[in-house]
Design goal:
The protein is of the alpha/beta class and 348 residues long. 31% of the residues lie in helices and 24% in strands. It has 2 domains: 3-51 and 116-245, Rossmann fold (3-Layer(aba) Sandwich), CATH 3.40.50; 256-341, Alpha-Beta Plaits (2-Layer Sandwich). Strands 1-2-12-11-3-10-9 form a 7-stranded mixed beta sheet, with helices on both faces. Strands 13, 14, 15, 16 and 17 form a 5-stranded antiparallel beta sheet that branches. Strands 5-6-7 form a 3-stranded antiparallel beta sheet, with no helix packed on it.
């Protein structure tokens, strides 16, 4: 068997190791469960935390991935009602044309990567002859849309509902018989010190809030402590391990974290300004003999947004606020368009 079972009274959580599965997206347990529950007219919820049809396009010949002109993110593709594909930047909302061949090398080995919620819906329709209801930020971004979705659910009692992390919240007067996490470690790919905690809480709170008896958790990281402790419903066990990680890396709550962000339309000018401030901060830390203060520069997760390049200066220390009081009294950083994030809850 390519899964572990965690039992909690009447609740069963099946943790599937996707590294040993033949299919990249659907485990054998997933497919068997879908067929069985649909045949018995049971209700299934599937959580896939990716909007759109596909995360992007990739040329298998030259490796080119179309990105937004204004933001350094891959263009997400959505399938419209008429069947045509539309490219969209999820940051600035700029729309783009869908290409059948690679715009860079002309290769026809140009296709989608990263299955989104729309593609999953299409696959389920084709394979199981069911029409899932989609719950994501587009279908529920206004009170009227929320009302319409809930009315449809309560009127039709659909067997399949697929959604993003929004589906972690129970639906009023509608209970699932099975909930499936299609990729339970997707949140771990975010380069941020809060990624483990956010990933754990999504799983843990879904298990605790829903009255569902059976869950399937598909993952490529079955040994990761955020996933294992969630499946064990071990809240304290997770935070015991998380605190070891944060203490070793000097992240909150074991130190204060301050991020100084600079944005500029001209990339070279951004580097010049950031490097100048970085050298000034190093000078002040040496002048005041602050030994344990960490200062380093790094681009954020999204390097360019709305046409502006972005760069961070990160400061970690137990008394960062004390040091920043000195900095602000000596350097006009706020007048130079640097933005200070006190007690930053994220580094992305």
């Amino acid at each position: 068997m390519n899964y572990e079972q965690f039992q909690h009274n009447e609740q069963n959580i099946f943790l599937v190791d996707m590294r040993n599965e033949q299919h990249h997206h659907f485990s054998e347990l997933f497919e068997n469960a879908i067929e069985k529950y649909l045949r018995l007219w049971k209700k299934i919820g599937i959580i896939i935390n990716k909007r759109g049809y596909a995360q992007g396009l990739l040329c298998r010949k030259c490796g080119y991935i179309p990105q937004c002109d204004k933001c350094s993110v891959s263009i997400t593709y959505h399938k419209q009602i008429n069947g045509e594909m539309m490219g969209l930047c999820h940051i600035c909302k700029t729309q783009y044309t869908y290409h059948l061949t690679c715009p860079k090398c002309g290769s026809e080995k140009f296709g989608f990567f990263g299955m989104g919620i729309e593609q999953l819906s299409e696959i389920l329709k084709t394979k199981y002859k069911k029409h899932p209801i989609i719950i994501d930020s587009w279908t529920t971004n206004t009170p009227n849309k929320i009302k319409k979705v809930l009315e449809t659910i309560h009127a039709t009692k659909p067997q399949l509902i697929i959604g993003t992390s929004l589906l972690a919240q129970p639906i009023f007067d509608y209970a699932f018989d099975l909930i499936i996490f299609l990729n339970a470690d997707i949140g771990l790919n975010i380069p941020d010190y809060t990624a483990n905690e956010n990933n754990f809480l999504l799983l843990y709170e879904t298990f605790k809030k829903h009255q569902t008896k059976n869950f399937i958790v598909q993952t490529f990281n079955p040994d990761h402590y955020s996933i294992r402790n969630a499946c064990k419903l071990d809240f304290q066990g997770f935070y015991d391990q998380e605190n070891i990680f944060r203490q070793e890396c000097k992240y909150p709550p074991f130190s204060e974290l301050c991020i100084i962000l600079y944005k500029d339309e001209i990339e070279s000018r951004m580097y010049t300004k950031v490097n100048k401030l970085y050298q000034e901060l190093l000078y002040l830390s040496e002048k005041y003999q602050i030994q344990d203060l960490e200062i380093y520069t790094t681009p954020p997760l999204i390097y360019k947004m709305f046409g502006k390049f972005r760069y961070n200066i990160i400061l970690k220390w137990k008394y960062v606020r004390n040091f920043m009081d000195i900095v602000i009294s000596r350097l006009p950083i706020q007048e130079q368009w640097f933005k200070i994030h006190w007690d930053a809850e994220s580094i992305v």
